[in-house]
Amino acid sequence: MSDIFEKAEQVLADIHAQAPANAAELEAFRIQYLGTKGLIKGLMEEMRSVPNERKRDYGQLMNRLKQEAETKHDSLKEVFEAQAQSAAGSAIDLSAPGEPMPLGSRHPVAVTMNRIIEIFTRMGFSVADGPEIEDDWHNFTAMNTPEDHPARDMQDTFYVVDAPGMLLRTHTSPVQARVMKNRKPPIRIIAPGRVYRNETISTRSHAQFHQVEGLYIDEGVSFADLKQTLLFFAQEMFGAPKIRLRPSFFPFTEPSAEMDIWLGTDTEKNYRLTKGTGWLEILGCGMVDPQVLENCGIDSKKYSGFAFGMGIERQALRLYEIGDIRLLFENDVRFLRQFASAM
Ligand code: PHE
User: In the chain, which ranges are continuous DSSP H helix?
Assistant: First the structure.
C-alpha cells in the first residue's frame, strides 16, 4: 500500500520540478497534472484501495497536490499573458472599463474674476490682455510715471536681470497703453490678469496677485459715466446700494478716486470688514490723464475716458467670506473643493 503514497509523493516532487517556459508548455503541464485524464485525477481514483485508517492522510496529500499544481499553473498563466500583451505593443486592454476621473473645480479667484468679466461684458466691455513680463515703457512711462518719478515707489517692482528695461508688470494698467496704441476709440475693455509686486507683507504672503483693469475712451466721456458704471458694478457684484468716491492720486488719472461700497454695520461681519465705518474700499479709478492719451497716440482734445483697476483676491474674500487671504494660495483641495459648485 505504501507504494501509492510513494507514487503521489513522486508526482508532487515532479510538479515542483516542472518549469513550463511558455504558454504551450504550460498547457501541456495543465493537461498532464490537472486534466480530466491527468495524473492527479488518476491518483484520486486510487482512494478506493487505500485502507480506511489512511484515507484521511491520502486525502490531504491529494489536496496538496491539486493546490500546488493549480497555484503554479495560475501564476505562470498570468506571467505569460502579461508578456504576450506587452509583446503585442500595448498593455492597454481597450475593453476594460475606464478609470473614473475626479472632476475639478474653479479656483475662487477665477470664479470672482469671471463674475467681474460677466458684469462688464453686459455693459459692452470686451476682454483684452497683455504680457506679464512687460517693458518699462508700457508699465510706467506711458502711464505717466517716468523714471525717477516718486510714484514708482508706490509699486515695488521685480526687474528682469538679464533683460534691461523688462519687468514683471506691477498692475494691469499697461494693457491700457497696449490697447490705446493699437485701436481707435471708442474703446471699451476690461483686462483681467496676474500682477507682481516685491512686497513682503508676511513671510508667507505672495508676490503675485490678480487685478482687473477697465478702460473706456470715446468722445465726451465724463466723470458721471465713470460713477454710473461703477455703481452698476457695485450693485451687481456685491448688492451694494451705494458707492462713495474719495479723492486720491494716480499718475495716470486726473482727477483720481478710490471707490468704496456701502455694506453698513448691521452685522458683526460687516462691522469688522469696514472697521466700523460701513464703507469698504474696492478699487482705484479716475479720468484718463490727457498726457496718457497723447503718449498712446490718441487725440486728447477730441477724446476723453475713464479707467479703473481692482484687486481680485480681496473681493473673493468678501464674496465667499474667507477669513485669511493665504488660503487662496495654499491650494489645499479640502479648501478649494468648497467652491466646486461655483462657476
Ligand atoms: N493701477 C492702479 C493700481 O494698481 C489702479 C488704477 C487703475 C487706478 C486705473 C486708476 C485707474 O493701484
Answer: 2-17, 23-34, 39-45, 52-87, 108-122, 136, 174-182, 223-238, 268-273, 290-295, 313-320, 327-330, 333-336
**Mutational test site, ligand 1, from 140, 173, 233, max ligand atoms within 8 Å of CB:** 173
Mean pLDDT by 10 residues, the chain (343 residues): 84 89 91 91 89 90 91 90 77 79 85 95 96 96 85 75 91 97 96 88 68 97 98 95 96 97 92 91 97 97 97 87 86 84 61
SS3 309: strand
| The model's pTM | 0.70
Tally of domains within the chain:
2
Ligand 1 centre distance from Cα of residue 258 (Å) = 9
Identify whether 10 is part of a domain.
yes
Ligand 1 atom showing the smallest separation from residue 288 Cα: 11
Nearest to 112 by CA among 316, 333, 331: 316
Please give the single-letter amino acid code of residue 10. Q
Residue 126 lies in a domain: yes
| Cell 518699462, located at residue | 136
Question: Which residue range forms the structural domain that includes residue 6?
Answer: 2-90
Residue 306: closest CA among 292, 285, 291, 290: 285
Instruction: Judge whether 98 lies within some domain.
Output: no
How far is the centre of ligand 1, averaged over its atoms, from the C-alpha of 250 (Å)? 7
